[in-house]
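Friendly challenge for the regulars: who can give me the structure tokens for this chain first? No prize, just bragging rights.
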Amino acid sequence: MFYKPLLFKLFFLISLIILLISCNDSNLNETKPFTSLEINHILLDSTINIRAIEIKNNMVYGASSSGSIYSFDISSTKLIKQEQYSSNEDSIEYPNFRSLAITKDHIFAISIANPALLFKDGVVVYREIHEKVFYDSMHFWNDNEGIVVGDFTEKCINILITRDGGDSWIKQDCSKFLNIEEGEGFFAASDTNISVKGDNIWLATGGINSRVYYSNNKGKDWKVIETPIIQGESTTGIFSIDFYDQKNGFAIGGDYTKPLINSNNKIRTTDGGLTWTVVAENQNPGYRSCVQYVPNSKGLGLVSLGFNGVDYSSDAGDSWTNLSSEGYYSFRFYNDSIAYASGNGKISKFLFK
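First reply, four minutes later:
Bragging rights claimed.
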């Protein structure tokens, strides 16, 4: 009889703790919409142009058009390291980088145009000579397997794959890709033509034809999917693609020579990229070069940017709010409220509020 009050108090205390933990977990899972953006410049240099940026192990990396790889620790942004890449063998003093990938222990970058030079930690591990060669984007599934995509040459788009940690790269046989159409390629605007989730990969082409190449086995087999995005000119199509999970994805682009056009430039999928639907038709933003899902947003939060602004959506892309008119090429989220962006002459920290 004397133990009943004590047992009741103990039961009440345990119940209260469980309730508080549940409330805290619920709050953590709720996404508070962004209403403003604070921009702090980390690197300003009018002589550089950075279209590729990555974050790995608390480090930010940016690849420039003048052959330099910039890096800094997020906790000490004033200590910026610059490593200059070159290739004496190819008489390339300053390779133009628009693609960058970081694995656990290595840094990869590939130059655009002829000759194409793929560097691993500053050493050329793949080179290709062709008057029309132009590689646009790269990504790794894991530390051993990676992919590089490039424009149309010899009646095929160009895809390189490594299975040995980037020591060797094999160009994929064109017979793997059905219905290749001339004038199809990739845009080297933000290094985000590729999205990877698990073994799945989606490649977004642009130009005369703008479609999505999908593989569920790390590039061994491919399915080519038509999209309703604006296309038909060399300057139109998908410029960036991102997937929140294996079902929900978003792609954005337009015509970079007519950046105010906001029709047929934003598309969404909810079935893993098999079908795509135009959203926010005739609504801003117009042309954008990069789109990324907000982490922990349940697939509802999206940020897009381009050379004339930064925009945010809290409803999976149905509507958008302009947060800044400052121009950038590319960005990556560090967490669900902080990102790092690159552009013409700068790397900046974004704080979403």
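The two ends are 55 Å apart (CA to CA). The chain has one domain: 37-352. Your move, everyone else.
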